[in-house]
Design brief:
Order of helices and strands: HHHHHHHHHHHHHHH
Radius of gyration: 24 Å
Number of helices: 15
Shape: globular
Structural class: mainly alpha
Strand content: under 5%
Largest sheet: none
Amino acid sequence: MSLKSGDPAVKCLESSLERQDPRSFVTTTAERLAFHGYSLWLFTYSDLKTIVGPSLVFGVANGLAAQNSSNPAFRNVQEITPRIPLVAVWVLTNLMPFVINNQTATDAIEEDKINKPWRTLPAERMTLPQAKRLMLALYPLAITVAVHTGGTAQSVSLVVLGIWYNNFGGGDKSWVVRNVINALGYVCFTSGAMEVAIGMPLPFEARLIRWFGIIAAIIFSTVHLQDMYDQTGDRVKGRKTVPLVFGDTGARWSIALAMTLWGWICPRYWNGGTLLLMMSTLVAASIAARSLTLRTVDSDRLTFKLWNAWMTLVFTMPLASQGQGLRQVVFSG
């Protein structure tokens, strides 16, 4: 059966097409893309200061240092600046499935309805089944991106760590396991970002490994600062965090002592000079002091923001190493 130009059905279709404004279609499509893009943004918003920003800074700063390295292991380092967008894409695509997984738990949604109602799921910008399907699609996407940009081993490791943390009690049953996963996660994000930035696999170089070991130790010994302002919620969920296992005061003293130690060790390790030493020790000391004396939820949140700022400073320290940077301190043979 064929339709002719004079048929009623054809006339109706022609009339509908004539009435449709092409500009309306473009506007509607743009609005939908903006809506869904903003929904994805809201999934990651809380982690911009903890993962996205610091990892990007680490990758670029350490990549620039490696670019000027005299170590033969880094002779194939590519130009860093054009690869900065790739670093950002790698970090975001690997972070996205983790945070969606973390936010799709039933208790997480209920908690976010109270504390973070603007997040994607409590704001009902996406249904739970849609979020889970998106998460399952993003896991292979993250690994695919890594295969083409670098950081494949780190990407696969982040999938394993994320599932362990969110689905098998890694973030709940033991404060040691919780902090270890956090430390390994930071190392994966930072080393992966650096690998993408330099455009070549990271070599198994002793000093480079030691650098990542320092980062892991800092995270393990201080990251529970983020648990200080959520003790009520963690207690309800039965989580074994440092403040709930050792008490509020014990946890705060562990943070203060570790920060005092790392605030001095890191700039001394890089031989960064008096200014860098003063900056690091002052910021670390302020974090330690705030942790001990300012114990409200809002104060702890601000202290954690200062901790993230200090971590970003640590990530850039190699470039301030008496004008020599990583090419002499870490990456020289």
